[in-house]
Amino acid sequence: MGIVSRKEREKEEMRQLILGAALKLFREKGYDGVSIRNIAEAIEYSPATIYLYYKDKSEIFFALQYEAAAVKRDHIMPVVEIENPWERLVEFGRRYIDFGMKHPDLYDLLFITLTPMESMENQECWKLGIATHSFFVETVQACVDARYFKSTDTETIAYTLWCHAHGLVSLFVRERMRMYPEEKREELARKSFAMIVKMAENL
Amino acid sequence: MGIVSRKEREKEEMRQLILGAALKLFREKGYDGVSIRNIAEAIEYSPATIYLYYKDKSEIFFALQYEAAAVKRDHIMPVVEIENPWERLVEFGRRYIDFGMKHPDLYDLLFITLTPMESMENQECWKLGIATHSFFVETVQACVDARYFKSTDTETIAYTLWCHAHGLVSLFVRERMRMYPEEKREELARKSFAMIVKMAENL
Amino acid sequence: MGIVSRKEREKEEMRQLILGAALKLFREKGYDGVSIRNIAEAIEYSPATIYLYYKDKSEIFFALQYEAAAVKRDHIMPVVEIENPWERLVEFGRRYIDFGMKHPDLYDLLFITLTPMESMENQECWKLGIATHSFFVETVQACVDARYFKSTDTETIAYTLWCHAHGLVSLFVRERMRMYPEEKREELARKSFAMIVKMAENL
Amino acid sequence: MGIVSRKEREKEEMRQLILGAALKLFREKGYDGVSIRNIAEAIEYSPATIYLYYKDKSEIFFALQYEAAAVKRDHIMPVVEIENPWERLVEFGRRYIDFGMKHPDLYDLLFITLTPMESMENQECWKLGIATHSFFVETVQACVDARYFKSTDTETIAYTLWCHAHGLVSLFVRERMRMYPEEKREELARKSFAMIVKMAENL
DNA sequence: CATGAATGAGAGTTCATTCAT
DNA sequence: GATGAATGAACTCTCATTCAT
User: Of B140, C183, D20, D193, whose CB count within 10 A is highest?
Assistant: First the structure.
């Protein structure tokens, strides 16, 4: 392993260090609430150093969103192996929620955090997100085609299921479950997932 | 009515003036985008004046959260008049979503923004929220009691319905509907609400 | 004298304080070399205070240029009283140079300092400068009309005289007379002025 | 020619490379607008490399001033060939102005920029400048000796001519010709030069 | 010889906040 | 009760400069 590759690795490590700190902070205080200084302090470097790795604040944000989208994809995509569309759909849902529970910061970044206005329509991240979403909709479509539902309104079915899953995860991620005792929350989520699956069966 | 009470009234009016302006601005520019100065300019007072009514920016924030809870209650609570529990439940859902759509910032404040839990005002706000939530759960319970559902798991039913509604509104409020064309978004929301109602009927 | 007028006066004093410090600094280090912080330090106020009196750095600069233009006008304009155009012209030149010698900072600001790019075509300052310049050209024209010169090329005559005067003052203001012993410099300038007057007589 | 001298040569080449880039950039963006980074990028080296050749930014500045003095000398000095002193004087003036027009930044550096007087390089530069100036004065003296003027005050004649030329170039370099339409400016300068020559003839 | 990495200092600017009036 | 004046602290970002490699 040569010098070059070591340097590359170190550079990559530094970028990860920055992203890690940024992620934590963005989650806690929102995009606007976080300053480059905050990030720098968190990793114990000078603010100027950050600029050696990322052009500006929004680039850090986008890098993070891309990472998050990639992690999400990797977490969910194994379901492509499942042939039966209904089972694939259920497993997709389970994994979607599981991703949110295991990586609340990433989920937050992808689906909750208010993004800086330069919308990212043409960003890699957006493509990645769209791809996963499309796969989800196609799976619903496959279920529709295979007559798993009475309804044939693929779009609305997909959207409705997404609403439920997103709502469920969001309430966790943004700590709106305080009226339920800590130890019952996860169980409730599991039950609710089972219930929406049941409900979907009769769609 | 004495001098004291008039002064109190005037003080209250001023507080309302501030909150009103703050709300409008938060809606336009987001919480972080608004400064005390902005609020002061909007009501044509000096920044220092604000401090005569609110200790600091965060206190305005908490006052707003309380306001939001009140607005939400007023928006939803007319449904207490509906005697039939199923109809009451459906109307509750409709109004909950309607509130979120009409007051995205208030909804945001109540259900999405990460908040510190200190503050007195915040406790008032919390009580108010709990009350509305309880009423919702009781309505579900009434439906269960009246055998509107096969399932009798009130808690899970209520939670599941909330997840859907919250997911639906959140996706709007935090602008995660970009993959759907602007003009179709509301229709989709309406269809989804109809669908979850249908699904609930067969619970 | 009421409170209002006292406040106004204090405000005006503060503006003068800022302008005074700024003038000195701009001269020494050029527009780009001076920071708002520098100015603030010079007058022992905080940087933020400056912004209570001037919107930004360029506004200070423009205010200063305007002041300079006004002082220059007041210094020179008494010559309007002189009826004989030739005498008026000579006196104009003498006073122009005198202004430069007595107020090197102001002269610098008006004719040497590189200005921030937002050109000031429509600024009051520009108008003022143009007015004085026009008066100068008109005086030359009057001399031409009265056959004081053989040449009738008013524009070139005016410009040539200006070049000399500006060159003379600039060499002083920007300290390029070092090859002449300190004590002889002013005499040299006086002689040169006399010489250009002589030369003009034979134009 | 040994290794040492080759290395010296290469070092000199590098210094020239840096100065060349610096000059180009100074011309485009002004002294303050140029950073070491900019220079480094322009020559495709790292910023740190610059420091192997110049201690700091100001040293580049002084080196440039010296360069400027050399370029000026090379631009003007061919006139030594002209035997007739009057023709030599006129051509000197023409070339002086021409140098200023063609290299406004160099001219600026030499005759307008406020400079600290420390630095060795600067002394070299100063000697060079003095030499050219002396040559100019000697040429005027030659004209006086050859009775080209009625006046015999060599010093004042030289200074007066210099004032005109310097004034003319300065007004260009520091952009004080805005009241004349862009396309007429050069013509005006040419006419003014012709006029001062005429005026000198009758001195 | 050349450089990548790092930083302290500083730029312009805005903000929440205080306090004397 | 209201405010004008003031400021310390913070912001994003760039720069000149150093140093280990």
Answer: B140
The pLDDT of residue A17: 92
CA distances in angstroms from C113 to A127, C25, C105, D21, D116, listed in the order given? 52, 12, 10, 24, 17
Write out the E strands in D22-144: none
CA distance C173 to B10: 63
The two counts, helices (H) then strands (E), for chain D are 9, 0
* SS3 annotation, A31-69: HHHCCHHHHHHHHCCCHHHHHHHCCCHHHHHHHHHHHHH
Residues 6+ apart with CB under 8 A from D92: D76, D79, D136, D139
Work out whether the CA dihedral A19, A24, A28, A33 comes out positive or negative: negative
CB contacts < 8 A, A to B, total 118
Q: Region C165-189: what's the mean pLDDT?
A: 95
Confidence grade of residue D48 (pLDDT, cut at 50, 70, 90): very high
Whether the CB-CB separation of B97 and B194 falls below 8 Å is answered with no
Asked whether the beta carbons of D69 and D125 are under 8 A apart, the reply is: yes
In Å, what is the CA distance from B176 to each residue of A11, B54, B181, C179? 33, 34, 12, 73
Chains B and C touch (3+ CB pairs under 8 A): no
Distance CA C151, CA C161 (A): 14
A202 neighbors A110 (Cβ within 8 angstroms): no
Kindly tell me if the per-residue pLDDT of D5 is higher than 90: no
The rounded distance, in Å, linking the Cα atoms of C130 and C133 is: 5
Q: Which residue type sits at A100?
A: G
- Range 48-67, chain D: CB under 7 Å to any strand F atom: 48, 51, 56-58
C127-147 pLDDT, tens digit each: 888 999 999 999 999 999 999
How far apart are the C-alpha atoms of D165 and D148, rounded to whole Å? 20
The full DSSP string for C4-33 is HHHHHHHHHHHHHHHHHHHHHHHHHHHHHH
Q: Which residue is nearest to nucleotide F11 (CA to C1')?
A: A35
**Nucleotides of strand F lying closer than 7 angstroms to a protein CB:** 1-20
Q: How far apart are CA A131 and CA B35, in angstroms?
A: 39
Q: Taking the CB of residue C27, how many other CB atoms lie within 10 A of it?
A: 20
- Asked if D94 and D193 touch (Cβ cutoff 8 Å), the reply is yes
SS3 label, residue B149: coil
Question: Which residue ranges form the domains of chain B, and what is each CATH number?
Answer: 1-54 (1.10.10.60), 62-200 (1.10.357.10)
Which of A128, A94, C189, D149 has the alpha carbon at shortest distance from B179? A128
Q: How far apart are CA A169 and CA A175, in angstroms?
A: 10
Q: Does A113 touch chain B (CB under 8 A)?
A: yes
Of residues B96 and B57, more confidence is placed in B96
Residue owning tokens 């000197």: D92
pTM of the predicted model over 0.90: no
Radius of gyration from C-alpha coordinates of chain D: 20
pLDDT score of B59: 86
B11 contacts chain A (CB < 8 A): no
Instruction: Band the pLDDT of D202: cuts 50, 70, 90.
Output: confident
pLDDT in tens, A30-63: 888 899 999 999 999 999 999 999 988 888 988 8
Residue linked to tokens 């295979």: A146
Cβ-based contacts of D163 with chain C (< 8 Å): 163-165, 167-168, 171, 192, 196
Distance of CA A93 to the CA centre of its chain: 13
Quickly count helices (H) and strands (E) in chain A: 9, 0
